[in-house]
Amino acid sequence: MRTPHAFFRERTAGVLLHVSSLPGPHGIGDFGPSAHRFLDWLHACGWSTWQVLPIGPLGKGDSPYSSPSSFAIEPLLASIDALVEDDLLPRSAARPDRRMDGPRVDIRGCRRFKEPRLTAAFERFRTLRRNKRVPYRRFLERSAPWLEDWCTWAEEHRAGSAEYHAFIQFILDRQWMALRKAAASRGIRIFGDLPIFVPLESADVSSNRELFQLDRNGRPKMVTGVPPDMFSSNGQLWEHPHYRWSRHERTGFEWWIQRLATQFERFDIVRIDHFIGLHHAWHVPATARTARRGTWRRAPGRQLLTKAFQRLGNPALVAEDLGAVTPAVRRLRDDFALPGMFLLQNAFGRDDSESLPHHLPEHAVVYTGTHDNDTTNGWWRSLDAEARQRVRDYAGPVDPTPARTLTRLALASRARTAIIPMQDLLELGRNTRMNTPGTPTGNWRWRLEKGMLRARDASRLYRLAARTGRLDRRGATG
What is the pLDDT of residues 17-73, one digit of tens each? Predict the structure, then answer.
C-alpha cells in the first residue's frame, strides 16, 4: 500500500481562485503585482494552499478546460507590469485602460490591449545583447519536448511567428516561476488542475495523431462525454477525441509522463480532472448528436499511474472523483493513496450522505463547492424549505450567511485538506458564479474588484483556521 503524500498528512486550508479572477488594471488577472498581493493576503489568513484552474491557452468558449495545448500557458496571463520592470516595455505601456475596469473579464478587450504590448516586448527583446539571452536559451532547451510543437501550431492558428510564440512562453514561464517562488517563501503551495482530455483542435493532437482514435483524414472516430443522468436527459457531449491507449502503452505513456512532469514543474499539487476516465470512459460515435448512444470502455489508468509514480516519485495528485464512482474507481484511487473530493453542497440530501463533515475520510479534500457549482449563497436560494431545514438541523442557524456556515463546516470536518472558493469566503451571490456546465457562453468571466481582499476578512479567516486546527504553522502572521 502506498503512503499518502506529505502534503495530505496535515490539516490545511486553501482558497480556490483562478489567476484570471485576480484584480488588476488590465482587464484580467495575471502573474503580476496583484497575484503577489493575493499571496500576502492568503499568508495573513494563515492558509497554506492556493488552488487555480488550468493555466493553459484558452479554448472553445474561452474555457481553460478545452485548451489547445497541455503544455503552453495562456498569453493573457502575462503581466505587463513585469515586462516594464524587465525593461522590455516603457512605463507608459502599463497605463490602465478604464474600459476594462470592472468585475467581468472582457477577453476580446484584453487581447486588444495586451497583444500589441506583447509584440512590442518581443521586438525589444530581439534587440538585446546576446549575453542577456542566456535564460531564454536555457528555457528553449528545458522546454524542447513540447515547445516546437506548440509554436508550429500557434504560428498556423494564431497571429505571430514561431519565434514570437516561443518568446511569449518564455516570459510566461519566467513570471510564473517567480510567482511560485514567492508563494514558497510564504509557505503557500500552489494547487493546479489537469484536464484529462484534450480537444481535436490542439497542438497535442496535431503533433501526436497516432495517440488518438482518428480516421485517415484526422477526424475522430469516438468522442468523449458522459451518459444521461438526473441532470441531463441527453448526457453531455464533450467531443474530445478518445485516446488510442494501445499506442500510449507501447511508448511507456511517455506523452502522459511529460504532461505530468510539466505540471509538477509549475505546481506543488495537481488535480486530475474526471479521474473516472482513467478507469473507464464513455465512448460516443463521432457522428452522434447527443451522448445518449455511447458505451463504457476501460482505460489503463493503473498502468499509467504505476509508470508515473516510477518516473516522478510520489507526486501529490488529487483525484477529481465526483459523480458516479464505482468500487473499481475507488480502488484505483486508494491503491495510489490519492485523496478524493467531497462537496458540502451535495451533503444534505434525504439520506445520511457520505459527504457530511463527520463522515468524511481524513485522506480527502473537502469543498463547499467548485468552479462548476453555484456559489453557496446562490445554492441556498435554490433549496426548498425541507432541504434548508436539513442544513439547519445539522449546522445550526445559517448565520450570518449560508456561505459562512458551510465554510465553517468544511474547515471543522475530518478531511485534512479543505478548499473554499473565493466567492464563498467573501459570501458573494450567484452573479459571481464562475461556470455553468452545459452553457457555452458567459462563463469564466468573474473577477475580484479592487478592495475586496480586506484585512478584516484575513483576520476572521485566521481565527477560523486556528480554531479548526488548520493554521499554517510555517509563518502566518495573524
Answer: 999 999 999 999 999 999 999 999 999 999 999 999 999 999 999 999 999 999 999
Q: Considering 148, 155, 372, 427, which one is annotated as catalytic? A: 372
Give CA separation, 218 vs 101, 212, 214, 215, 384, in Å. 43, 9, 5, 5, 49
Q: Which of 415, 324, 329, 400 is nearest to 368 (CA)?
A: 415
Element (H, E) at 415: none
C-alpha cell at 71: 503544455
pLDDT digits (tens, 9 = 90+) for 84-103: 999 999 999 999 887 777 78
Q: Is 457 known to be catalytic?
A: no
How many angstroms separate the Cα of 157 from the Cα of each of 206, 239, 452? 12, 20, 38
DSSP state of 186: T
Is 372 among the residues known to form the active site? yes
Mean pLDDT of the 141-161 span: 97
Catalytic residue among 30, 62, 193, 273: 273
Give the pLDDT of residue 477.
45
* Candidate list 30, 193, 268, 320, residue with the active-site label: 320
On the question of a cis peptide bond just before residue 57, with omega within 30 degrees of 0, the verdict is no
Give Cα separations from 247 to 31, 196, 208, 257, 310 (angstroms): 37, 17, 10, 14, 19
* pLDDT for the residue numbered 128: 82
Helices 301-312 and 327-335: angle between axes, nearest 10 degrees: 10
How many Å is the maximal CA-CA distance in the chain? Answer: 70
Q: With cut-offs at 50, 70 and 90, classify the pLDDT of residue 474.
A: low
Spatial distance between the Cα atoms of 204 and 146, rounded to a whole number of angstroms = 9
